[in-house]
Amino acid sequence: MSEWMEGRQGSVSRKTNETDIKLSLNVDGSGEVTVETDVPFLNHMLDLFAKHGQFDLKVEARGDVDVDDHHTVEDIGICLGQVLRESLGDKKGIKRYASVFVPMDEALAQVVIDISNRPHFELRGIEFPSAAVGSFTVELVHEFLWKLALEARITLHVIVHYGRNTHHMVEAVFKALGRALDEATAIDPRVKGVPSTKGVL
Length: 201
Prior knowledge:
Blueprint: E1 2-5, E2 9-15, E3 19-26, E4 33-36, H1 40-53, E5 56-63, H2 70-88, E6 97-104, E7 107-114, E8 120-125, E9 132-133, E10 136-137, H3 139-152, E11 155-162, H4 166-185
Parallel strand pairs: 4-5, 8-11
Antiparallel strand pairs: 1-2, 2-3, 3-5, 6-7, 7-11, 9-10
């Protein structure tokens, strides 16, 4: 169930046998964040994402974390992608593209985005040194980003250029994701209509 509000914002509720999620997003926000899920590391990453992207984000999520974190992380990615896509509407006037590098101590991540209506995801670069950060399984970073790209219908390339600390590497990715989405979704007054020779995105 979704509710689309005035302006570039919206909310969605998703309830399954595995998760119960309520998520709202204001693309033109100021970085006001409230995130409450059963996955503490994801809470931290979503907080970074929204604050560095200047998005207002509210997430309330409960899931079958007694099994593992997979369903909760995946479904939050789905919900965030759905709300982002609908919030942008016809995409008139947006910059569309962005490429952002973010360092986090010894780690460097790059996120490149095309708000294209063509879902595609690539995660490249060096491997994360450890399989988990605390109780969070790092392979879920791929799952979250892929479902976000799929549901938002964006082309998303993430490159981790280097790093030694897995926490720092993942943190750099989420900060870069926020900043890149902020740039790509920004309204450019020079852009007349949709930024595509096709006339539609």
